[in-house]
Amino acid sequence: MTDNAIQVDGLGKQYRRGERQPYRTLREAIAGISLPLLRRGRHHARDGALGRSDDWFWALSDVSFELERGDALGIIGRNGAGKSTLLKILSRITEPTAGCAVIEGRVGSLLEVGTGFHSELTGRENVWLNGAVLGMTRAEIRRKFDEIVSFAGVESFIDTPVKRFSTGMRARLAFAVAAHLEPEVLIVDEVLAVGDAEFQKKCMGKMGDAARSGRTVLFVSHNMMAIESLCTRAIWLEEGRRMADGAPAEVTSRYLKTSFSALTERFWPQRDGAPGNDHVRMRHARVRPEGGQPDDPIYVTTPFTLEFEYWNMREGARLNLSLHVSNDLGVTVFNAVPMEERVWQGRPFPRGLFRDVCHIPGNLLNSGVHRVKLRVVEDSAHVVHRMEDVLMFEVRDASEERDGWYGAWQGAVRPRLRWETEQVDGFGAALRDG
Amino acid sequence: MPDRDTALGLTGRQRQRSPSGRESDASRPVTTIQPSRGWAALRVRELWEYRELFYFLMWRDIKVRYKQTALGAAWAVLQPFTTMVVFSVFFGSLAGVPSGGASYPVFFFSALVPWTFFATAVALGANSLVQYEELVSKVYFPRLIMPAAAVFACLLDLAIASVVLLGMLLVYGTTPSLAILTLPFFVALAAVTALAASLWLSGLNVLYRDVRYVIPFLVQLGLFLSPVAYASDLVPEPWRSLYQLNPMAGVIDGFRWALVDGPAPGPILAGATAVALGLLGGGIMYFRRIERSFADVI
């Protein structure tokens, strides 16, 4: 017997394109039958009611992979890449159009926590109902009931209708039920999209436990860090097709490279055609980790450089560069000028090729896409050349920094600050004085 | 093959089988997922495996219904009861519909009890999939369970209304004959008919969303095509046999005969039963056939 828990072979799913409402009305259906009869065109039948045949597209196409028991597979890709379709097929909610999949073991899918919760019913009643919906047997629910309730921390509200629960309590109870599902194959879609930090941490912890205890986990997420730290393998889907399959870190970095049009290096070999004017002409611009290549990833902890080579076209010009680095919200994180540069600043430049290197320390920028605006300034006053988006690069999150929390880290910068905590006095002293 | 063990430090452990023999490996079910073509099998075994979910959905329907209405269980009685009063006044006293000697309240109520069950069950069953669409789009189970649970949950209402009906018979001094023992058969026939209608309509309701507006009209039509407001012998003979092929006509005539008085069911009842079973069989096949597209279109 093989140890494969899941074997997926050429799986595909076809949908109709651009249907705002997938369901039709009876009226349309009747019109769709009668109109072509009137037109006496068999071929119009598809035009009228069913849509042109080229309106069909493959949401998922020829996807194959095998998972061994205990594997945790992360599935990444843009919205509409087919990730959720794949999960829906594997959890049997929808049927594939082509291919087949063989799954060994009981499948539990969490495409949404709290599915089947009814707000009129009490917490207790919903635990039973939701448990049954997720596929637990009555005996199983009875056995785990107390554990579920205490995990959710809603003991005192358990006989209150769920409609009086706060959103947080409801989410906790729903997750508690889901977390106590013990299928051999666990299918999870984007749990991290909801809930607060603590809730996310619980979710991730439970998923990690599931993977470690020999369950097979399939996990769709947009959170690359979560994929990298929880999964043993990742596949990347693009327009329904498998683009990459392999170690999570590898797959996610390949995916991220294409997920925005990174401009980490630009080179203009011909001076005459290069951006610029009769003051300056550009030759080379690049961003790279200290000592690395422009293609290498930059993490929040990585020191890196912004480098520019340019031709000074006018004898004796006093030039300096000015760099604006902005984040994906359009906020300018900083503006840098060569104030600390001692050799050339303030001196007239002879004609020729110059190179400026700006060193940016690690633990300064927050994660995300950053853009660089370049200004070439003469006499510290006139902008003689400007380039918007001369470089674009992504600063990636480093999971070791996060201590189990995977949500967005606020702020334009992410410095590591010196911090001190000390005990000033004992409790007794404070009472005495106060 | 990438080295999957180093990425997370999940060495060794991940290959272990579930600890403490919670479930033996032999019981690991194997699921094969592939496109189905044409008519799907009934998969009775699968339905049996999901019986607990069926039970829970039924229980939910009952709980929610009685919690949401201010009157709770009394609603199950009030609805047929008020209709009975209205019918007794208008069809009975004013229009003088022949009741075959029975007093109007018993005559109408004995028909309204099974009819109300049928009408409520069909209305709820036909909307069961659309109403709880997140169940359809987020979890897998045989969808047949949803309309079935909605229909069977209505049996409780029927039971409550039946108790009141028996009380009324006592008040009006009608002693049911031994024929009352056949009542379970007519209840079953009503349930089969309601389930059949629910299967057809709930499936159509998912595919064509305006079906929900047609359902009340169909139920209304059914009220007049069944002997609720009149006795079935009002229908002249060449047509009566055809008329009595309507399973609900069989159910209502059966209720009247078993509880009050009226013509004993003839061989045509077998025909009505066959029609009900045929509708059910067709409904199941149709439902199974379109079930696979529910999650895509709901």
How would you characterize this protein structure?
- The complex is a heterodimer of chains A (434) and B (298).
- Chain A has 434 residues and is of the alpha/beta class.
- Chain A has helices at residues 26-39, 44-50, 83-90, 123-134, 138-152, 167-179, 197-212, 224-230, 248-259, 427-433, and strands spanning 4-16, 56-68, 72-76, 98-104, 107-110, 185-189, 216-220, 233-238, 241-246, 265-267, 280-289, 298-299, 304-312, 319-326, 332-336, 352-360, 368-378, 382-396.
- Chain A has 2 domains: 4-106 and 183-258, P-loop containing nucleotide triphosphate hydrolases (Rossmann fold, 3-Layer(aba) Sandwich); 265-401, abc- transporter (atp binding component) like domain (Coagulation Factor XIII, Chain A, domain 1, Distorted Sandwich), CATH 2.70.50.
- Chain A is 26% helix and 31% strand.
- In chain A, the strands form 4 sheets. In chain A, strands 5-6-7-3-8-9 form a 6-stranded mixed β-sheet, sandwiched between helices.
- The longest helix of chain A is centred in the middle third of the chain and has 16 residues, at 197-212.
- The longest helix of chain B has 28 residues, at 104-131.
- Chain B starts with a helix and ends with a helix.
- Chain B has helices spanning 4-8, 44-49, 51-68, 74-94, 104-131, 133-138, 145-171, 183-207, 211-225, 237-243, 247-260, 268-291, 294-297, and one strand at residues 30-33.
- The radius of gyration of chain B is 24 Å and the shape is globular.
- Chain B has 298 residues and is mainly α.
- Chains A and B meet through α1, α3, β4, α4 and α8 of A and α1, β1, α3, α6 and α8 of B.
